[in-house]
Amino acid sequence: MLNDHFLSLVVFSLLVALFFAVLNHRDSRGFWKSVGKTMAWMVVGSLLFAYFMLWTAR
Amino acid sequence: MPSAPPRWKAYAYSLPTLLLPGLSHWFLGRRRRAVAFFCIVAATFWVGLLLHGALFPFHAPNWLYRLGAVAEVGLGAPYALGRIIGLGRLDMRDAADLMFGYGNTFLVSAGLMNMLLMMDAFDIAVGRKE
Question: Phi and psi at residue B26, in whole multiples of 5°?
Answer without folding.
Answer: -60, -50
